Amino acid sequence: MKKGVPSGLYAALKDILFPAACLLCHQGLGRAADVLLCPGCAAQMPLIRPPVCSCCGREFPDAAAGNHLCGACLRNPPSFSRARAIFRYNKFTAPLIYSFKYQGCTTAMRTFTVLLARVPTLGDLREKPDLIIPVPLHKKRLRQRGFNQALELARLFFPGEKRRIQPTILLRSRWTTPQTGLDGKHRRRNLAGAFQVRDARRVQGQRILLIDDVLTTGSTVNECARVLRQNGAGNVEVLTLARVFD
Ligand SMILES: [Zn+2]
Ligand SMILES: [Zn+2]
Q1: Which one of 151, 194, 196, 223 is CB 3.0 to 4.6 Å from 134, fit for a cystine?
Q2: Counts for the chain of helices (H) and strands (E), in that order
């Protein structure tokens, strides 16, 4: 807020200069709102609801089932103990992620915070991690994009936790080709040796919450969790904005 400008006047000017529009269908919303979604798009927002896999957070179709482990987590337990996401990534929500990740559009961020508070499955995550670590970008990618979207999300989701948010402990030390289009096996191979812990003493016995924008196959966060645990981390949980389900 600008100093010396009455807040009502400021809000009115802002509404005139930057009229609020639905982030998905772009229809005008009248006044600025906390959630930049029209009623129709808000109703269609695919928030993730229980029952889910108690480990990876995969949704189960049978509403009466209750949380349990999915087949994939039983066969191949991941290095993280839990992963949760706010909404499903699909054709409908993809533009939200795209504008945030590639166009540096921060208009959606307030909407993300409000959605975060509405997702019941996030209660499964621990209340207070010792460290909140955004999935790092390679420095070359960071230069291209200008910001790490995972760090922006960490700051947004945990506004009072500046000290716990640690973007420099985990490094992406090896350049990897984009994961898009690779299957699970090739994603894992592509990521081998990509991450490094800079100072193992800082993760010893720590409860860590990893943050990323989209969880696709889980290979990236799983590799981060594996490296963190190999370096002595106690427990690793994952929070992402969106989650792809096949
Ligand atoms: Zn809309
Ligand atoms: Zn699972």
Answers
A1: 151
A2: 9, 6
CA 179–ligand 1 middle distance (angstroms): 30
Angle, helices 149-157/109-118, rounded to nearest 10 degrees: 50
CB 101 within 8 A of CB 112: no
Dist. CA 18–CA 31, nearest whole Å: 10
pLDDT tens for residues 17-75?
666 888 889 888 876 677 888 999 988 999 999 999 999 999 998 888 889 999 999 99
Q: Which two tokens stand for residue 94?
A: 């993809």
Under a CB-based contact definition with an 8 Å cutoff, are residues 196 and 185 in contact? no
Spatial distance between the Cα atoms of 215 and 84, rounded to a whole number of angstroms: 9
pTM (2 d.p.):
0.87
Closest ligand to residue 58's CA:
2
Distance in Å, CA 111 to ligand 1 centroid: 13
Q: Would you say the C-alpha torsion 88, 91, 94, 99 has a positive or negative sign?
A: negative
Residue 163 CB neighbour total at 10 angstroms? 8
In tens, the pLDDT along 39-52 reads 999 889 999 999 99
Taken in order of first residue, the domains within the chain and their CATH numbers are 19-243 (3.40.50)
Burial of 122 (0-12, 13-18, 19+ CB in 10 A): middle
Which contiguous run of DSSP H or E holds residue 239?
A: strand 235-243
Residues 6+ apart with CB under 8 A from 92: 24, 44, 46
Task: Tell me, in angstroms, the distance from the centre of ligand 1 to residue 47's CA.
Answer: 16
